[in-house]
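tool=predict chain=A
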Amino acid sequence: RRSSDLEEGLVSHPNDCVLLNAIGNLFFREKRYAEATGIYHRLTELTPDDPAPHSQAATSALFDANVQLFNEHVSRLLEIDPDHNTGLKLMATAKFRIGEFPEAAKLYARVLEANPEEVESTLALGMCFHKLNDNELAVSCFRHALEIDPYNATAASNLKALTEPKEESQPEEPAIPSSNGTVKAETIQQL
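tool=predict ok
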């Protein structure tokens, strides 16, 4: 009912940026990613130099697997602000998903230059190094994540998996996207 009320308001106020943003946010929360992407895309047409709607459009497009709109909006976002934290993480996530681990690692490293205490990007960088068979750097990342957050279960599990002898029958678990569109480093089991 809330979305229909907002959509009715949009009929009489089609260029209301606050209303468009509210509808996009509601669709995103309801996991209606294609609809959210469309609304955010429309918002970017009204405010082409504002990084926020490009970030929202890129995020929802990533969740919707809309490669064309994802590329369009993340590219524009990084054109507006080359060091935009969310833009860098979104691009890194996309690179990770398609197996471009060196590029993903470079992007996560850029995020960490500005935010060295960010655990999620530290874990993701560790996963990139693991995928690149550089377990020494992966271990370093997971240790650093534990220095930042001593109770981080993912960092502890990944560190344990890389430093303790492994069992023959354990399969490797892939990295899984977290709820905000970035890569969440899951436990490495079988190397």
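The first helix runs from residue 2 to 12. Strands lie at 176-177, 183-184.
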